[in-house]
Structures are given as structure tokens and as C-alpha cells.
Write a structure and sequence with these properties.
single chain; 11 strands; mainly beta
Amino acid sequence: MLQFSLGKLTELPPDDPAGRPCAGWREGMAPEIVYALNRGCWQLGEEAAEHTVALYASTGDGIVRLAVEIARIVPMGEVDGKPVKAIEGRVLQAGHPVHDRFVGRKAPAQLTQTFRYVAALCGAPEGRTGKSCGAKAKWIVSVEGERGDYIACGQHITGPLDVGAARFQVAPLR
């Protein structure tokens, strides 16, 4: 099973390989729209072809918003010089056992690989100039005991890390 993270609905550049105007999720979106906007472009290895189901969970609360039965994984071109792929499949509806087990519930923590697509720039103010950094986000930071994840450009983090002795994990965006 593959798991993808859905950030807030964000506008994409006009040269998006999938031709999408935006990606992400917001409350009230139909599952088919969520799928259409978020089925690609992901950096997926060959092992992704072994999976038959994809879950899409919102980053803010980790709730699974969508389950898709994977028919195939197809190439979508390149993003930043790296090949990207998209999921082709069928959105699972209520009554399907996978939908009923996962959709509307917290995403499973035991999955070994979560892919996050964040079309975001670091907005942290620069210390010297006070202007927003604007560097492309490269990392996702999860802080133990806090809701939600933060993105980081490598120099800044777009959320508070005034957490004392709390542990945090940093992983590259994919």
C-alpha cells in the first residue's frame, strides 16, 4: 500500500507535467476531484508498481481522505530534472472494504513509505533583510506531540520549533 500526503490546496506552475491547475486538498472536495488533482506527479521507484492500493491523507490531521485501487503507474515527464509518475486507478467508494477500513480515519503509521508533494516555498523571514526566504521547500519536519507537519528549505522551518526537549524527525520531501 502506498500512502501520499495531501497539503493545503495550492496553485501549481503552468508547466505542471500533468496539466493540473493546483494540487492538495480542502474540506468538502469530492473524492474524484482530490484524485484528479493528486494522482501525480510523484517520484516513485520501480517498487511502487508492486502496490495495489494508494491512500491519500491530509497533512494537518493525518486523516485518510481518499483510497484508490491502483491499475498502473505511468510516467508523467520530469519535475526539476527528475522523472515523475502518476497513479492510474479507481477511486474506492463506501462499501469497499479498503475504503471502509481507512477513509475518514487516521492514516496507518506502520507504512514504511509516505510520499509528500508540497508545492511550497519557504516563507520564513530572513534575519538580515526581513524579506521572505522564498527558497523551495526540501524537508518535512514532524515534531513529537504537535499536530501537523512543517516544511523546511534547509535554512528555515515554516513553523514553531520552540518545543524544548521534544523529539522531532526530518525527512526529505518526495
